[in-house]
Amino acid sequence: MSRQRRRNNDTSIQLTPMIDVMTVLLAVFMVTTPMMTTGIDLNLPRAGASAMTGNDHAIQISVDKNGNYYLSEMKLSRDEIVARAVAMRGENPQLTIMISGDTAADYGAVMSMMGKLKDAGFQKVGLRTQPE
Length: 132
Hints:
Layout: H1 15-32, E1 46-47, E2 59-63, E3 69-71, E4 74-76, H2 78-91, E5 97-101, H3 107-119, E6 125-128, E7 130-131
Parallel strand pairs: 1-7, 2-5, 5-6
Antiparallel strand pairs: 2-3, 3-4
């Protein structure tokens, strides 16, 4: 009694389920991406084409034209922001901080925040600008 095994030689890939999944993922990302922007509405200063714009993993600190400080969208004092940033650095030692200052913001308020962060031991502190 000899049995022959038949092999299924159908090696084609079914693309329809893969296309369906990719379409759903695309729709999800298109809907959620605009909601991921954080911070307050600022009129950023213009700089050259190679301006620093920040990255997604950086802490965003904003200084508005009235000299108020914001961590994302929370209005806090300068010292509270520095304390929270130090706490966040405990979880991520390579933390990057981007400071966004309104064009009408006091230069001293922006530099004061940068100085406090440097005094707290942050090495990666940048100023966010808008490309020309």
